Amino acid sequence: MSATPGVIKPSAASFMLRITKLAISALFFTISRLIKNLRRMAGRRQAGTCVVLYYHNVPTDYRHRFEWQMQTLAQAWTAINLQQLSDLPVDSHSVAVTFDDALESFAGNAIPVLERFGVPATVFAVADAMGARPTWGDSYFPAEERVMSVQSLRSLPESITIGSHTRTHRDLTALSSAEAANEISGSRQTLESVLSRPITFLSFPFGAFDDSTLRQCLEAGYERAFTTLPELVSGDRFVVGRVAADPWDWNLEFRLKLTGAYCWQPWVSALRTKIKARCARIAGNKREGSVPGAAAPGAETTPSVGRVRVDRAFPKL
Ligand SMILES: [Zn+2]
Questions:
Q1: Which residues contact 231 (CB under 8 A, 6 or more apart)?
Q2: Coil, helix or strand at residue 221
């Protein structure tokens, strides 16, 4: 997710980062397509794949851009809802669309477009913030943005699934176990009772989760939880990664995101984490005067599995 243009001035560094990601993704796409074609020529069938996009706001000024994106999606790929993730047909590629925060601009500008192009979607609502200002996104959203009211959520069409985005949009990994349980389980109860719809999916605020929050999601009865780690989905998993999308994405950026070309990022982050850990271990060894190669003090302590952990495979729960 990037800030709505005009809310904050983009820096030269963020522009360069965006260009670099685009270039790597284009290369990744070329190589993956080549491998895929070779496999096909060898007569090998391939597991079905899916990219789950996550949006936030769709400002009126960018509605036409969102229209182009949904038209492109509908023409090139199969748009599916999240319930279909567990049954991806062999040799197929699908795209699912989600929206975090349940903002009014989603209701006003995105829904008519989704209906027009027959694209199902899921919106993740913050149970205790309905009708309020999304204070957690002050540096991302325009000042006039609001969270959908209870009435707006109740009037959503059947093609829109509603999921939980917790009670108050706090980082679950920074809370006590009791507080996190209340956010996870309490939000489901509130949304189900207020909206009279089953709530079976949860999206982690800031993409942050750990082993404890995963356990609590299972205990609360969720069928799937979604994070912000870009992932080409294939196979049935409890935690599903998603690719960030915005209406102001460049055309090429968006087309590549649809194919899964941006899903190289976790591998690079995992490599970076490993290098950092190795450097820290070496530095620790030097400080302690220990034998090179021996485990550094504290190296066996359990690492945090919090905010967008990218160096850890999703558990198959
Ligand atoms: Zn959010």
A1: 52, 240, 241, 242, 243, 263, 266, 314
A2: coil
- Please name every residue paired with 52 in a beta bridge, in sequence order, or none if there are none: 96
- Return the minimum-mean-pLDDT range out of 58-67, 97-106, 122-131, 304-313: 304-313
* Whether pLDDT at 313 is above 50: no
What's the rounded Cα separation, in Å, for the pair 226 and 203? 5
Length, in residues, of the chain: 317
Residue 101 Cα to ligand 1 midpoint, Å, equals 5
Distance 136 CA to ligand 1 centre (A): 8
What separation in Å is there between the alpha carbon of 2 and the centre of ligand 1? 12
Span 12-267 CATH architecture: Alpha-Beta Barrel (3.20)
Instruction: Summarize pLDDT for 17-64 with one digit per residue, the tens.
Output: 999 999 999 999 999 999 989 988 988 888 899 999 999 999 999 999
For residue 205, how far is its CA from the centre of ligand 1 (angstroms)?
Answer: 5
CA distance 179 to 173: 10
Q: Determine the distance separating the centroid of ligand 1 and the alpha carbon of 171, expressed in angstroms.
A: 10
The pTM for the full model equals 0.85
Give the span between the Cα atoms of 193 and 246, in whole angstroms. Answer: 31
C-alpha 143 to ligand 1 mean position (Å): 16
Ligand 1 center–CA 299 separation, angstroms: 33
Task: Tell me how far the alpha carbon of residue 310 lies from the centroid of ligand 1, in angstroms.
Answer: 19
Residue 147 Cα to ligand 1 middle (Å): 11
* Cα distance between residue 225 and residue 315, in whole Å: 11
Name the DSSP class of 167.
S
Q: How far is the CA of 134 from the centre of ligand 1 (A)?
A: 9
Query: Quick one: tokens of 154?
Result: 């109740």
- Measure 99 CA to ligand 1 centroid, in angstroms: 9
90 contacts: CB under 8 Å, gap ≥ 6 = 45, 46, 47, 48
